[in-house]
Amino acid sequence: MRSREPLFRSLAEALTRRMVVLGLLCALIAAALQMSWVYHEERKAFDEQMHSVAQTHLQLLSSSLWDIEPRHVQSLLDNIAAAPQVQYVLLEAGTGQQFRAGSRDAHDRDPDHAGVTLTVPSPGAPGQSLGRLHIDFNQDYLRWQLARAALQVGLISGLLTLVLGVANNLMVRRLLLKPMGQIARFAVALAPGKLPPELQLQRPARDHRDEIDLVADGFLTLQKEIARYVDERTRHETALARQAAELDQAFRQRTAELQAMTRYLEVLSLSSNRFMTVSLDAYAELMRNTLGEMVEHIPRCDLAVAEQLDSASPLLWRYVHQAPGHGTTALVEGQELPPGLIGELAPGWTHCRIRGLDEATPAQALAMQRQGARAMAWCAYRGADSTRVMVALSGQPQRWAELNDKLTQMAADMLFNSMRRRRDQLTMEHMHRELQHLSHTDPLTGLANRRHFDQVKLEETRRALRNGLPLAVVSVDLDHFKAYNDSYGHGQGDSCLVTIAQLMRDTFHRAGELPARLGGEEFTVLLPGQSLAMAAAHAERLRARVVELALPHRDSPLGVVSVSIGLACLNVEPSMPEHSAEEQIAAVLEAADRALYEAKRAGRNRVQVG
Amino acid sequence: MLIRALFALTLTLCSPLCLAFSVVFINPGRSDEAYWVAAGQAMQAAADSLNIRFEQRFAERDPLRVQQIARDIVARPAALRPDYVVATNDKRTLVQVAQLLDTAGIKSFAAFSGLQDDERALVGPPRDQISRLLGSLEPNAEEAGYLTAKALIAQGLRAKLQGADGRLHLLAVGGDKSTPVSVLRNQGMQRAVAEQAGKVQLEQLVYADWRRDKAAEQTAWLLARYPQARLLWAGSDQMAFGAMEAAQQIGREPGRDMLFSAINTSPEAMQARIAGRLCSLAGGHFMAGAWALVMLYDHHHGRDFADEGLELDRPMFTLFDRATAERYLQRFGDGIGGIDFRPFSKVLNPRLKRYDFRFGQVMR
């Protein structure tokens, strides 16, 4: 249920109402008094009238009756009845006649007919009676008089009450309500924090003080108290606000730190993930981006990682994030750090913050100036063999408030680990390539070995068959090599093989041409896309260049080392389409071997086309 | 001096022949009131016989109207104004009327009733302050009261109407308390009673205002109040008739069980006198106006009445017996007229030294 606010009712109204009620009450009392007075007066008047009747009218009546003057009698009776207090007059003459005056109706209506009865004396003989005179009191007149009195008093009192009420209302308004209203408005405006206008009561000039002045004084005192209270409160509030601002500041700082830390951790987490999956090519870029993200929240700041792989090598910039316009001179990846910038590092983790040049050692300050930096911070790890440093450089003095050693170290650790992993990866890859090379190569001559040759010959055969291109096979064999070995030793034999291999490599150096040492002094060359004639020309040039080498060979009829060469070529037209590539190349190789054999039989140092 | 004497002589000689003068009578009575009609008729008769232009206006018993008539006369153009106005002092109207006429230059004369003592004290006698009020002529009213009362008592004694105490008990109904005529008549009545003091007792005198009905009412009261009364004196015929009605109401026959007297010469009164219902009747004063015309005629013709006095109070009444009543009716029953007034004029009868206005002369 809604509590209703009581109605506002003006004091003037209440006072006026009370005054009017009082006035009406007085009017009632006055009316009652007046009525009783009027009643008394009227009764008295009636009695006087009766007295007068007895004194004068009765004698006149007596003489008129005696003189038998009915009109006189009647007029006398009328005269008596004319008195307002008299209702009805009846004269009963001794001789039987009756005279009446006044209203008979009321006489009949009022059975009491309060009144008097007088005896009319005879003028001649006082003892004798001429008749009886009945006079009735006029009750209606009395009532009317009473009503009129009441009405008069009521009217006058009502008017008076009205006038007094209005006057009272005006006076109360003027003397009480107006200043009260001003005080009320003043009081309403009285609130802590706002200063109400000064309380200036509009009142007529007086030489005395009254209750209103006391109330006004009270409110002025209250105003002063409020002002004092407000002052105190304002002081407290200011202090509180200052504290709150400080707290807020601290909180904001803390939040910012937490945010920075969170972002940092996010960056770290993301980056470490990325580093796990990044390809080797994109590594450097990722590293730079990561550095950028890390240093993002520090204004005008460059971040770089330097690495020293072993104690002998210098400390080099490895990855650099540097935005233009930071005031620092360019940091170049792969370049040596300015001497003295880092200085000697202790093993394990080291941190350093230089907020301005004045904090740096002279050597450091010099190095920094050379680099265009005015503040620097770094975090370094010196391991057993390698050393890595994450360096932040700023072109302006920095408080490095954003830096947190722990976080920096975490980040640096992550980056350094990643770099270590990368280095390990690179080593592994190198070794893998080495192994692969070894498995495809004849270790003495460096030519392809049989395994590699078998692998490639099938691929080339399938390509030749697919494209309808020729594929020539050249079989090369050193003449009388068994005797050479016997004569000159295996060392000399191997050296001879190496020289021949080199010559072959020089001869068949075009792409796709694959010279291979299949075993002992036996070499085979695959020449994809070459016809038999072209292959024969190459083979002839090889044979000639071997002879031209003039490697001495005592046990050869020529006195020098020579080679025999057999040629075969894969038919462009698939002669044996039902045969597989292996069978076809095998057939071509066999044909080449057969041609070699023919060349041997025909005196060696020649080229025989199969 | 000579010329003035000659002029006066010429006027004196020529006026009766060629100068008929005019008179207006302000009749205070009602135009159907026998007494005042008779008075007017008598004046007309006098005017006829004396060659006077006569006009009468009835005021119908209204004093205001008396004055209105006077104002009307004054308002007339000079040519139409009368030479004389005869007025009465009925209801004390005379002074105002005479003053009004006086200011307009019209001569006036009071007949029937003249100035009362208090009025005279105020405005003086005629020809004094009101210079054109020439004089007055009144019938001797006391005589009328006395004559009738005396005859009534005599008749009562003859008829032996005494009460248980051996005395005659008399009731009197007067006109009013103030009019001199009424007062004088009552005084006359009282003088007659006083003369027979041992034999007659006047029980009560009441005033009926000349009205028949009031007289009847009062008589009824009086009869109740004085059962022994057998005589009733009335100041006028009308009041006597009223009293008779009241007596008849209680079974008393006028003229037999109870005797009545009256004053006036109305035919009704005459009839009652002849019938015996009225045992005593006096009259003739209605001639006062006619006698006044005779006096004015003489005055107009240079024979002033001043030598007899300005305010004349003359006996005019005659007691009527049965025979004179019959003769009166014979002669004046159809109205007053046919009287030759010339014998009563001093101008026309130079040997006449004193006016005699008794009614008996006319009846002879």
Oligomeric category: heterodimer
Q: SSE order of chain A in H/E notation? A: HHEEHEEHHHEEEHEEHHEHHEEHEHE
> How much helix, percentage-wise, in residues of chain A?
40-55%
Question: What helical percentage do the residues of chain B reach?
Answer: 40-55%
Spatial separation of the terminal alpha carbons of chain B = 47 Å
Strand order, sheet with most strands of chain B: 2-1-3-4-5-11
> What is the number of helical segments of chain B per DSSP (H or I, 4+ residues)?
13
The total of beta strands of chain B comes to 12
- Characterize the overall form of chain B: elongated
Mean pLDDT across every amino acid position of chain A? 84
How would you sum up this structure, described in words?
The complex is a heterodimer of chains A (610) and B (364). With 610 residues, chain A is of the alpha+beta class. Chain A has 13 helices and 14 strands. The relative contact order of chain A is 0.05. In chain A, the strands form 3 sheets. Chain A has a 5-stranded antiparallel beta sheet, covered by helices on one side. The model of chain A has no long low-confidence stretch (mean pLDDT 84). The longest helix of chain A has 67 residues. In chain A, helix 5 packs antiparallel against helix 6. In chain A, a hairpin with a 7-residue loop joins strand 5 and strand 6. Helix content of chain A is 55%, strand content 16%. Chain B is an alpha/beta fold and 364 residues long. In chain B, strand 9, helix 10 and strand 10 form a beta-alpha-beta unit.
